[in-house]
Specification:
By secondary structure, this protein is mainly α. 56% of the residues lie in helices and 0% in strands. The protein has five helices and no strands. It starts with a helix and ends in a 14-residue tail after the last helix. The relative contact order is 0.20.
Amino acid sequence: SKEISELVQKPEFLRGLQVYRESRLDETPLKPQGNPFGSGQGGPIDCLSNYFAWLVDHPTEQAALLKHSGAPAQEMVMLWSSQIGQNNTATLVRLISALAGVDTSSDRKAVG
């Protein structure tokens, strides 16, 4: 999408990606993913349920996630399935861009 193309060209994204990699975070979420069996409930519901439970137990991380992911980019009343992937990617790019503000010279690497 146009939004994603513009976001990935910003210096904040490139710096955030550098911080992401220097922090040795798992790069699997940055790669295109698909489910060869379709988008059924099997894997996604387990993964998202565990993630939701983790967020409930970590309010500081939840607040930082909401702050740095930006305003919702998706209309929920008129939702098109094809928009979900694009908007997930745009949110991920915004979160990586927020890492540009992390001071990698210290032991504590937190964005908040």
